[in-house]
Amino acid sequence: MKEAHNLARRNINSSSDQMKARNDDRANASRFRNEEKHHDVCLVCGDRASGRHYGVKSCDGCRGFFKRSIRRNLEYICKENGTCVVDPVRRNQCQACRFQKCLSVNMNRNCVQHERAPRSNRLPRECSSPDKRFSYLDLTTSSSFDYNYTSIYPHLMTTRQDMSNSLLTQQVISTKGNKKTFQQQLRLSSFQAQCALVWRVSVLWSGGPHGSQTERNLLLPIIQQSLVPTYSADPTLVSTSKSSEIYGGPNTCLQDTQRHTPPQELCSKRKRDTPTGQLETTRPSQDDFPSSTTSPSLSSSKVFLTSTSGNVVVPTPINPLHPLPVPFSYHVLPPLSSQAPLPPPPLHPMFASPYVQSFFPLAQCSSFNRMTSISEEILLACVTWARLLPAFTALNDSDKKILLEATWAELFVLLAAERGLHFDTSYFLAHMDLTSDDHPKQNQLLVICYSQLQEVKDIIQSFRLLTVDMTEWSCLRSIVLFRYYARGLKSTAEVQRLHEKAHLTLMSHCTRVYPTDVLRTNRLLLLLP
Amino acid sequence: MKEAHNLARRNINSSSDQMKARNDDRANASRFRNEEKHHDVCLVCGDRASGRHYGVKSCDGCRGFFKRSIRRNLEYICKENGTCVVDPVRRNQCQACRFQKCLSVNMNRNCVQHERAPRSNRLPRECSSPDKRFSYLDLTTSSSFDYNYTSIYPHLMTTRQDMSNSLLTQQVISTKGNKKTFQQQLRLSSFQAQCALVWRVSVLWSGGPHGSQTERNLLLPIIQQSLVPTYSADPTLVSTSKSSEIYGGPNTCLQDTQRHTPPQELCSKRKRDTPTGQLETTRPSQDDFPSSTTSPSLSSSKVFLTSTSGNVVVPTPINPLHPLPVPFSYHVLPPLSSQAPLPPPPLHPMFASPYVQSFFPLAQCSSFNRMTSISEEILLACVTWARLLPAFTALNDSDKKILLEATWAELFVLLAAERGLHFDTSYFLAHMDLTSDDHPKQNQLLVICYSQLQEVKDIIQSFRLLTVDMTEWSCLRSIVLFRYYARGLKSTAEVQRLHEKAHLTLMSHCTRVYPTDVLRTNRLLLLLP
DNA sequence: CAAGGTCAATGGTCAG
DNA sequence: CTGACCATTGACCTT
Lengths: 529, 529
Ligand SMILES: [Zn+2]
Ligand SMILES: [Zn+2]
Ligand SMILES: [Zn+2]
Ligand SMILES: [Zn+2]
Description:
Chains A, B: One of its GO terms (molecular function) is sequence-specific DNA binding. Among the domains of chain A are: 61 residues, Erythroid Transcription Factor GATA-1, subunit A (Erythroid Transcription Factor GATA-1, Chain A, 2-Layer Sandwich); 159 residues, Retinoid X Receptor (Orthogonal Bundle). The first copy, chain A, is 48% helix and 1% strand. Chain A has 21 helices and 2 strands. Chain A has a two-stranded antiparallel ribbon. In chain A, a hairpin with a 2-residue loop joins strand 1 and strand 2. In chain A, helix 6 packs parallel to helix 10 and helix 16 crosses helix 18. At the A-B interface, helix 1, helix 2, helix 7, helix 9 and helix 17 of A face helix 1, helix 2, helix 8, helix 10 and helix 18 of B. The site of one zinc ion (ZN) has 7 residues of chain A, from helix 4. One zinc ion binds next to helix 4 of chain A. Chain B binds a DNA duplex through helix 1, strand 1, helix 4 and helix 8.
């Protein structure tokens, strides 16, 4: 309808054109039935037509040519007398005659619409100094890169690592500076890889030309942070001068635009029924999992998340050309770390704070920058929460590490669901580093990435439909965190006890609060990643 | 040229229309009011409204646009400040602003329903004449093929399919006869993709040059088989002579693997009324899930699985050079199909038979061939079991299809666990078609494949540790099969009832049989894929 | 009537 | 610039 509308508006005499074209078509149709039953011919050049375009059966070439000519209002001049032959082979010899032919067969210029917005919202590479970026690239592709990669994921594996198969080792990609072995590459569990993708994509867009490089920079300190005794923050972590050296030159393209989630205005659909009330019935037995009853200071967590407080080191552009020389190092740090060590409070806001979803609830994370910081916040929240969970803190470092490394990805999704995170899968994928190669196998990767991102979205959506309450979130987190007690921990029994305690807590809570829904517990568990 | 087409199609009086439309907008502001009454105006763009859509008077264009945006969960980004004008001419210039306008006039996203199955009157008739089959083949390799593919997997998706992102579309493999779009390629959920990998690897190794092609050929008939009325075994199913032509030359190593799909199944919307009469909706008993109490004839299933009985067509090496020329074809057939139709027995061995794990339990599936056929058996067992499940049979075809397509991959893993399947991930990967490229991105794909295979192994191992009993397996299967009752089924309530019934059955069973382990139910559920 | 789907004819894309 | 290719649009049907 619209096109007709436009047509009518835009041109008065188009109708006669149309009628003429149509008459021709009818005549042609009947006459050609014999010779050209299925293969229509381009009326301009005689090539095989791909359909009707601008009113005339024509090929894609002539279609595009006509469109470009009209759009850009091009005029051509024939070097001959305007008698050039227009056929599939010679049609590009003379644009003037080709265009003439288009008009003579009644291609309708009014059918060419206005230019539209580009289909891809891909943002241009935003680096002001390409040279430096290239040099940075050269650095990272060298070998030291590999070593770091290996040392970072030494334990990010599932229980078994039967990677010793000789066949596989043959398959190692052996580019010059890129000789990672499979042993090194395959330690991510599927779900971890899944989340790493979400993570990675934001990192990539943030300007790190090498995803894994920045990814390492991000994940390593975060995971290791779990081993830091609570609140015994190491001041060196704050030092930016050193870390920039460690992680490479100060020459990434990342700009400091929208580093932080704008606080309140983003909560578009927030309607919480604030159930902070009678949940403490089960309290006495739950010292391991302080639940929502202890109302945390939400403001504190808010401050932390939004990085508006002085407690948080805010990245400061040192040089306009290098707005964020060490793009992530600051964020790795929990806010309190930059303070003098404090006595551990009994409960940290982070523990229950995720229920306060008002930071970026259903607000569409359309901005990639925003998604980046939000992902980061969520990941950090996972670790922070665990660090502050008394039961977790009491474990030995080795077990802590194993548990967190095994579950961080699941926790990530769980906390994302808790916050009602919303993101656009396609937009994400569009920014991933996967789209530059048209090798067939590239497709498989894209398929998988898409599916996994989509799966995360579905999990989030499913949780949203269940309207999980705060106690349930707490229990679910603990259930996940202590889920893999069978993976060679030192304190297997203790972790299993914690796991089951969380389980029982969840069950009793659901039974009491939702007595009509006997299956609620099961339903929740089924949703876990 | 659609506009010309439409215009012409619509007719003769177009000139008068244009005159009307040509009226100066400013001049006839008053008169315009009248027209607005007569023909309502699209509140979004101001075009002529075709009625109320999603709660708002709107034109067909805005209707379609809103529908697509919601369905695929699209998000747009305005290149301007979000101030673009949305009128009939410019509405396509900025999707972001158009969508914003849709929302601002209160188009209701909840009115957008789930995608339905494609209209079925589309498929070319399946003919008995071989000649026509060939012509059908020709069609299939070109564009109509895409259509078929689309219509086959219309619901193999998670709830959303935001695959329209333009960047992604660039990545499509565009060989001549292989122009699937991403919409078509990405309908597999992550977990389906995961299992498809297991599946695919065997297919690839079997010699199918085109993974997705053969994959489709394999999966399609198997899934559609679920729609075959129980025990109405069609003798033609066994006949292998004809159908190889349908799917391509006999030069593929798969040969007539796919031919088990009876002709009728290809016409998707076969009229089928549930033969079992009234659904036992109100029955409080557990007839829906005949569980282990009715002891099945295990020997029968054993016969089937081990392929040692005369009832089963056993693959026979035809040529030493091609030890398994038709590696899959025979296995597609459920054992009873090769028999004369039997009166439906109250319970089929398949239902509980998987508990008999002794066929290839801990035995290493070192042979790729064996892995191949075992995978297939398991996949077939999934479908067979579902087909013979009374509660499932009673559903309408559409719902059956949706459910099975959504869960087959999970069922695959579940049944694999039930059987104690063991395989060597590394060995698998070594045979996959992923290792020939040394592009860095290849690594990512390998990482993911490995992780996913490994994850399947872990699931299987975890189940093994729990020593799941037969009743539990049954319940778990049903829980999975009816898991996605919220995905736009026709009988949502019924399926949900079934789902919860399985749930309750499992709970009561666990409570009764394992009274000391109150968490057993939860533990089981947590293991589900 | 208002949901849904259909598919020709628009659009844009980007190696070549 | 060319043109093969894929996504998007929307007039027109079906349910
Ligand atoms: Zn032409
Ligand atoms: Zn000329
Ligand atoms: Zn409109
Ligand atoms: Zn705009």
